[in-house]
Design a protein that fits this description.
Shape: globular
CATH architecture: Alpha-Beta Barrel
Helix content: 25-40%
Strand content: 15-25%
Number of strands: 9
Radius of gyration: 17 Å
CATH class: Alpha Beta
CATH topology: TIM Barrel
């Protein structure tokens, strides 16, 4: 297995709990703590890749309705920061293009999760993979694509084979090895809460990178690094340090 080429700590959804999730404000947090950034990419009704986790707007903006049915113009009008704290009022839902440029300027490693709306696995993967390939062309650090959608990962592999891919799972399934191999994935991304030392050793010994989410306890993070975990995604980049 080649050495892990990225930061060993990634801020969940850009800035963890220290900034509104999936916003440009989170990139400043990640830069401050010298972590990488993990974020979610979904398509708007206009077909633009934007950063947001939920398929609906209510939880993280002052808007309502489905992201996939909302135009770019309407998304740009929404406040995606006030729900976290008044000092983030006016923070917008950024496009992948905006975030990529900031990540490159700040030198941030990226884990881009392809997060399709229901029924949009193929088109989301197509747009996200081709956009990422173009935006990071020639960069020293290419984004690591991940997804729970195996359809999305297959499309990404076909259209942007140069971008490494990771299969997202919850608890590690018995057939993880076969699934990763079939997808050409180089990493397995698993729920830190259910991971055992034996599972970690099995993934690493088989030659895959192991990324875990979302670990917020510094002591357990140190233990996970001791097990050999390559990367921890956390809501608390101010607490969880590289092991």
């Amino acid at each position: 297995m080649t050495p892990w080429p990225y930061a060993r700590v990634f801020a969940h959804r850009c800035g963890g709990v220290l900034a509104p999730e999936n916003t440009l404000a989170g990139l400043e947090v990640a830069s401050r703590y010298a972590t990488g950034v993990e974020f979610d990419v979904m398509l708007s009704a206009s077909g633009t890749p934007v950063l947001i986790h939920d398929e609906t707007l209510e939880r993280t903006t002052n808007g309502s309705g489905r992201v996939a049915q909302t135009s770019d113009a309407r998304l740009r009008e929404l406040d995606a920061g006030s729900w976290r704290d008044a000092r983030f009022a006016g923070e917008r839902i950024p496009t992948l293009d905006e975030v990529a440029r900031q990540c490159l300027v700040r030198g941030l490693d990226v884990n881009l999760e392809i997060k399709p709306s229901d029924g949009q696995d193929e088109v989301t993967a197509r747009v996200a993979a081709l956009s990422a390939s173009a935006l990071w062309r020639g960069a020293a650090s290419l984004p690591l694509l991940s997804s729970f959608s195996e359809t999305a990962l297959r499309v990404a592999a076909e259209l942007a084979p140069e971008l490494p891919r990771g299969l997202l799972v919850g608890a590690i399934p018995l057939d993880w090895h076969e699934r990763c191999r079939a997808l050409g994935a180089v990493a397995l991304h698993a729920d830190a809460r259910t991971l055992t030392r034996e599972q970690a050793r099995g993934v690493l010994d088989a030659g895959w990178w192991l990324v875990v989410y979302t670990e917020n306890d510094p002591a357990r993070a140190r233990m996970l690094f001791d097990w050999g975990v390559n990367c921890i995604i956390t809501d608390h980049p101010e607490l969880v340090a590289e092991g």
